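Single-chain item
Fold in C-alpha cell form
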Amino acid sequence: MKLCVFDFDSTLMDGETIDFLASEIGIKDKVATITSKAMAGKIDFFESLVQRVSFLKGLNVKKVDEICHCLPYTKGAKETIKELKQLGYKVVVFSGGFRNATDYAKNILGFDTSFSNILHSKNEILTGLVGGDMMFGFSKGDMLKRLQTLMNISKDDTIVVGDGANDLSMFKYSKIKIAFCAKDILKKEANIVINNKNLEEIIKELHVFK
C-alpha cells in the first residue's frame, strides 16, 4: 500500500474556501490578504485561521454549504486522483479549510478520506469559532506521521502535494514532495515543482522522478 496526501485549497480546489465565504459578506480582500500572508509563512497559521473565521460570524450555514458545493476544482484533479488509485495509492486530503467543502468534494473527486476543520455554529448560524484536525502549522505533518503508523506505510511510499507554508510539515515525512503552483517557502523544500495549473502534471513528473 502507498499513500498520497493532497492539500485542498489552491491545490485540488482552485482558490481558498475561506476567501469564497468572505466574498459573500463583502470582506474578501480583507480575508484574502491574511490568507496570503499565512500561506507565505509570514504569520502564524493558527492565529490567522482564528482571525479569519471570526470575520464569518453571522453567516448562515445553509449559505456556507451552498458556496462550498460550488467551488471550482483545479484542472485534472479528478483524473489525477483516479490514476493514483489505479497505481495503488490511498489518496487522502489534509485541509486547513473546512469539512463543508472537503466532505462534499470527496464524492466528486474520488479521494478516500479527508481531515479538515469545522466551522462552529448555533441555530444554523456561524459563531465565528473554529476547531478540528488541521488547526496548526504542524498539524499536517503530525497527522501524516500518525496515518503512516496506522497504515504501516513508509516515508518512501508517501507522496505529498501542497502549495503553502502549512504544507511544509508534511514534507519531512515524505520521499516525494510536490509544490503545486506554490509559494516560494514551499518550493524551496520540494523535490518536484509544478508551475502549470494542471494536476495531471503530477503523473508525468512521477514517471520522470522514478
Remarks:
- DSSP finds ten helices and seven strands in the chain.
